[in-house]
Amino acid sequence: MRVTRAQAEQNRAHIVATAARLFRERGYDGVGVAELMAAAGFTHGGFYKHFRSKADLMAEASASGLSQTAARTEGLDPAEFVESYVSREHRDGRGDGCTIAALSGDAARQSADIKTGFAAGIENLLTALQAPSDTLGDADQRAARTMVIDMLAHSVGAVMLSRACPDDSPLADEILDVCRKEILASLAHGSSDQPAALGPEA
């Protein structure tokens, strides 16, 4: 039975979504093409009807995951983002969580295409977290961006460190609790200095 173009596009999107989840759970090298296609409900042979290589799928799946993270962040102020991101729920929900926290370590060892995609995804997330303001001067805009970069890096690092510990390790929770508290305190201090610099409610 011939597959329509629309169905082929749906199948491709489903494969990409499945790959994005599995890559976040296991890393790029932790799942092969055959297993990935089986998880998506297709045969191994069908893979090359959609993608030239696993590397192409890795790049597309990463871009998709990064876009989802930015979309979920839209409308959150920085404090809300930190409360949700630096949490046990996010730490344990690797497959449904942020691609940056799940795959940054892997991406650093991948091709320029994947690194470029990560840079674009990180930039989009920074943009989503920093509310635009025509009233801020260049210096204040740079200061606001600096604060958002620091917040994101601290948040991602906290989740990565916590995940490196055993699930039942007290240290896994301690890292999250300490970092969340410190990031929120830093945001509160920064917001008092620059009331319009961060987020829709900062």
UniProtKB/TrEMBL annotation:
Keywords: DNA-binding, Transcription, Transcription regulation. Residues 32-51 bind DNA. GO terms for molecular function: DNA binding. Gene3D superfamilies: Homeodomain-like (1.10.10.60), Tetracycline Repressor, domain 2 (1.10.357.10). Residues 9-69 form the HTH tetR-type domain. This is Transcriptional regulator. It comes from Streptomyces lincolnensis. It holds the Pfam family TetR_N.
